[in-house]
Amino acid sequence: MFESYWRKMGDKCTMVIAGYESLSYFADAKNLCWFLEPKLEEAVKRLHLTVGNAVVGDHHVVVGTGSSQLIQAALYALSPSDEPEPVSVVSAAPYYSSYPEVTDFLRSGLYKWAGDAHTFDADGPYIELVTSPNNPDGVMREAVVVNRPGQGKLVHDLAYYWPQYTSISRAVDFDVMLFTASKCTGHAGSRIGWALVRDKDVARKMTKFIEINTIGVSKESQLRAAKILGAISDSCLPFGPSKYDNFFEYSKTLMAERWDKLRAVVKRSNIFSLPKYPNQYCLFAGDSSEAHPAFAWMKCNDRIEDCDKFLREHKIVTRSGRRFGTDPKHVRISMVSRDEEFNLFLQRLSTIQWSG
Ligand code: PMP
């Protein structure tokens, strides 16, 4: 949905890579993450400083093929290597539907999916995936498994902690923080994510995982991402020509328009409801606003058992609440599709009335 912004930017992010460039596996042999392009590291740090959403001072940057690869790298790095049983991996429901799949796909001996963090009560070590703002429901979250000193490790998945989706209330400073270009700039296809990791050994292990998995991360993608991240940091400079050149203001306006349209349609319906988000002060924007999450977590009324099935009958494809570890009355709807798709969705949704 941010394509219109990048079109407006014209050639600002165009780059040419000659046939003789970027051949080596190595980007910087002296860096702990030896396949990380220095230009990307610099652009990542500059962007976090510009937005003020995460501290970067003492953290190591590890680049991944999307944050999807970094989730796996983090699970590997945080799993104890001397335990007889795999470590439990939990996340509070509703949780991002990929977590169970990613955790159990290869039936690792190191870690296993243990479900909803709210109901997790087994003894022993665990890893909690904390997604904030959360996918699917847009809520700002904190770890929920508490009172286990020394037993739990946290991975903060901050894919959506950017000003177009939510207010930036502080620069977060967690042990392992994951970000991705997919959600920040819209360049999901470049497959670039990055982790900010406090502990050197954890960062080293994550780097090792990626070395074994893919011997690094595409240099072309890293260089392109560096250019794009650089462009959005530039767009935030105070002497920019128009507020609509500021990437985050532009994209926040788009998100807010979509949410207004969806809320108007839902208000007229006698079937659906949406979560409400509180007004919160954003340090980056310098004003208060409600969240505009990348997904709408929509609920059907009590007379409809399976909201996903009901909507499919009306030619609307969603993801059922069941996939997120919760009930089928909820569905997740993407708020970041292309304009034509989003408008068609609204049009179809607006024609549905309960007649049962
Ligand atoms: N974490 C969350 C919470 C996500 O929603 C997504 C994408 N849907 C990812 C990680 C993975 O993103 P990517 O691999 O494109 O960086």
From TrEMBL:
One of its GO terms (molecular function) is carbon-sulfur lyase activity. Pfam families: Alliinase_C. The keyword Signal does not apply. Keywords: Pyridoxal phosphate. It comes from the Eukaryota. SUPFAM superfamilies: PLP-dependent transferases (SSF53383). Residues 1-352 form the Alliinase C-terminal domain. GO terms for biological process: amino acid metabolic process. CDD domains: AAT_like. Belongs to the alliinase family. This is Alliinase C-terminal domain-containing protein. It comes from Escallonia rubra. The lineage of its organism: Eukaryota, Viridiplantae, Streptophyta, Embryophyta, Tracheophyta.
